[in-house]
Amino acid sequence: MNDKKLVIALTKGRILEEVLPLLETVGLSPAEDINKSRKLIFDTNLEDIQLMILRGSDVPTYVELGSADIGITGKDILMENGSDGYYEPLDLKLATCRLMTAAPVNQTTTPKRLRVASKFVNIAKNYFSGQGRQVDIIKLNGALELAPIMGLADCIVDIVDTGNTLKANGLETREHIADVSTRVIVNKAAMKIKHDRIQSLLERLSEAVSD
Ligand code: AMP
């Protein structure tokens, strides 16, 4: 762990787009335009803070292992990761969406043993086993909507915002698994060693979110 710098791991994509303006409101901005650079780590206007840009699923790993002090990522990623190796002190209430099951419109027959395609295999496993339902989980990395259309699976577990992607592919939402929003996670050792700086940032973010 770098004792001098506070390293914040951000999730690229939709979360980054919504989080950068929030960071701006608490007085933190990257030293250069993140969207115009191929760099993965950025200095900021504050000498002791650096920003790292990662895939969401790598954010918990960097934070748990201490290469980042703070991480900002979706609750879906944290649920799928399933670790308790970091603190999760703040809900930023950004990039909200839902984790849902979805199936083809008009598909009414349910096979005895459901085939479920998802990139969220742990979430899917936990959800169906929590209901005492035995399912076969098929791991995919993207374009989940294709799986039921092509007969690979009976349903999918995916993130839904407007539902337009499902609709465009002949699918509809079925069961609500969880509400998702952007969370702040903190490395456990950093919370002690860099307590004042982290606490002050958390307080400013918390105030900005509740405004
Ligand atoms: P929609 O068509 O609005 O329901 O959006 C569906 C797709 O957008 C999903 O399959 C996700 O890949 C992506 N998406 C929507 N909301 C989010 C979010 N908050 N975070 C990450 N991906 C999202």
The count of helical stretches stands at 8
The molecules bound to the chains, other than polymers, are: adenosine monophosphate
Largest sheet: 6 strands, mixed
The CATH topology of the largest domain: D-Maltodextrin-Binding Protein, domain 2
- Radius of gyration over C-alpha positions, nearest whole angstrom: 19 Å
CATH C-level name of the largest domain: Alpha Beta
pLDDT averaged residue by residue? 96
Q: Quaternary status of these chains?
A: single chain
Q: What is the percent of helical residues? A: 25-40%
Strand content: 25-35%
Using DSSP, what is the number of strands? Answer: 11
How would you name the CATH homologous superfamily of the largest domain? Periplasmic binding protein-like II
Secondary-structure element string: EHEEHEHEEEHEHEHEEHH
* N-C termini distance: 33 Å
Morphology:
elongated
Number of domains: 2
Structural class: alpha/beta
Tell me which CATH architecture of the largest domain applies here.
Answer: 3-Layer(aba) Sandwich
Strand order of the largest sheet: 2-3-1-4-11-5
Summarize the structure.
The chain is α/β, with parallel strands linked by helices and 211 residues long. Helix content is 31%, strand content 31%.
Notes on the structure:
- This protein is of the alpha/beta class and 211 residues long.
- It is 31% helix and 31% strand.
- It folds into 2 domains: 6-95 and 181-210, D-Maltodextrin-Binding Protein, domain 2, CATH 3.40.190; 97-178, D-Maltodextrin-Binding Protein, domain 2 (3-Layer(aba) Sandwich), CATH 3.40.190.
- It contains 8 helices and 11 strands.
- Adenosine monophosphate (AMP) is lined by residues 14, 74, 95, 97, 158-165.
